[in-house]
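re: that chain from earlier
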Amino acid sequence: MAKLKVGDLVHLPRRKNKGLGIVLKYVEDITKEIDAFKDEFWITHAQMIKEGCRTADLLDLRKNARIHLLEASPERDLLEAYFQYNNSWCPKNKKSFIYIKWFKQPSFYENARSSDKEQWHPADWAKAM
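^ sequence. v structure.
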């Protein structure tokens, strides 16, 4: 699949109403873009996943890190999207994100359309028109 870039017209092909928007920002690897990710938390997080830790411990670690990072970061909306799309069960973190301004909002998998005019989405969820 071709890599998306700023200015591309995109849609979300897996949605019932696919939407139509333009890419305003592209972050290839969020962990390199945001200094807060260069933290002890990420090393601990990776080790816990490798060792097959209890889900409850992993959730507690993520919750505490999320609060800490969101308070300290100037890119709060990007971090919120990161945590939303990489919630508890996700074995492979989504690190590439695009910020889309919607001309026609996509649905939430059913008929109801999203109300947000601009949103962060994982880059692999969108497809160029």
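The CA atoms of residues 21 and 81 lie 18 Å apart.
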